[in-house]
């Protein structure tokens, strides 16, 4: 940078003056226009280096009517499961030259609406929905082409969805416990209004039916995916009468809460009650005992969600719905045969 530009922010007019061209030519060259000759482009690039001019990408994007930003709507940013999904989103977005904004809805529809308005104003080019619902502010609007659901499908909307087969995964978890010899298998659900929670409950019921085991409604307790919710739900199960010998939980945090309640009741895991988690968050392997759980490919889900959204933004999407991603039963030390 020459001395005359020190202490001041170089402008496009400075580049144009030094290169001996018009401001419009500089703008076209920096945008990669084929109308600018190679010799002229070289002069402009030399002038950019000499002045230290920095392209204002935001202004450029406004002229192109694109933000190169997406919004990820998350029900609970403190949940470690969603944190890992977001790592996958951000990594894929970064490679594609996109920024990621995160909207934490805290399961509040009003907050979801406030965040979603950015799609209406052009603040973002598209949205990833991780909360299983379409914000009210988008109902009736022609924006489905810029939406992708991740983790949880949106009921009533034909949106591309990146998910595992939740029902099959829950069935596999329940069948594993039955395979160890358990017959009194309880289930702690997720949030009652959640599509994913409902699918996991159905998978649990399916497995019991396949195994010829009766479903005892007293063995089903409502949770909310949190440690506290799991602890309270497990305490209710222990107080309800005949205690289970195993419990399938709708999340790893729920499973940790269940183990806390089991210990508070003077019992042990897996000695007295086996506990199965779901998600395989990082703490699952480090907890005592390490959790047997269902592993969801969290980062892959985030990355695939972004790629589907990017295709829709670019108008190159080939299908509405993607195939379910694989899940894995991870066997650790929190489950054992009943005594």
Automatic annotation (TrEMBL):
Leader sequence segment: none
Keyword annotations from UniProtKB, A to Z: DNA-binding, Repressor, Transcription, Transcription regulation
PROSITE patterns reported in the protein's UniProt record: HTH_LACI_2 (PS50932)
UniProt KW Repressor keyword: yes
Domain spans labelled HTH lacI-type: 10-64
GO molecular function, one term: transcription cis-regulatory region binding
PANTHER family per UniProt: HTH-TYPE TRANSCRIPTIONAL REPRESSOR CYTR, LACI-RELATED TRANSCRIPTIONAL REPRESSOR
Name of protein: Transcriptional regulator, LacI family
């Amino acid at each position: 940078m020459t001395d005359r530009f020190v202490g001041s922010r170089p402008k496009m007019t400075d580049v144009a003056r030094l290169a001996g061209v018009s401001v419009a030519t500089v703008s076209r060259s920096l945008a990669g226009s084929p109308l600018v000759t190679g010799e002229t482009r070289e002069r402009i690039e030399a002038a950019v280096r000499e002045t230290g001019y920095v392209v204002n990408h935001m202004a450029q994007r406004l002229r192109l009517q694109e933000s190169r930003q997406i919004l990820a709507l998350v029900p609970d940013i403190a949940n470690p499961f969603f944190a890992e999904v977001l790592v996958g989103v951000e990594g894929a977005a970064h490679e594609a030259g996109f920024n990621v904004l995160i909207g934490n809805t805290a399961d509040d529809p009003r907050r979801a609406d406030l965040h979603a308005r950015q799609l209406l104003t052009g603040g973002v080019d598209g949205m990833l929905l991780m909360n299983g619902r379409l914000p009210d502010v988008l109902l009736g609007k022609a924006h489905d082409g810029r939406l992708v659901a991740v983790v949880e499908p949106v009921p009533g909307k034909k949106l591309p969805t990146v998910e595992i087969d939740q029902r099959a995964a829950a069935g596999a978890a329940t069948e594993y416990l039955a395979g160890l010899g358990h017959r009194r298998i309880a289930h702690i659900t997720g949030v009652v209004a959640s599509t994913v929670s409902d699918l996991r409950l159905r998978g649990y019921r399916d497995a019991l039916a396949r195994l010829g085991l009766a479903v005892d409604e007293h063995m089903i307790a409502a949770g909310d995916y949190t440690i506290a919710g799991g602890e309270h739900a497990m305490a209710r199960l222990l107080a309800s009468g005949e205690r289970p010998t195993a419990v399938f939980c709708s999340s790893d945090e729920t499973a940790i809460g269940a183990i806390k309640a089991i210990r508070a009741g003077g019992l042990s895991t897996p000695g007295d009650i086996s506990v199965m988690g779901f998600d395989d968050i990082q703490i699952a392997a480090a907890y005592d005992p390490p959790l047997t759980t269902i592993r969801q490919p969290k980062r892959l889900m985030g990355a695939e969600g972004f790629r589907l959204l990017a295709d829709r933004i670019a108008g190159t999407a080939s299908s509405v719905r993607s195939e379910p991603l694989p899940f894995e039963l991870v066997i650790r030390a929190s489950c054992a045969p009943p005594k």
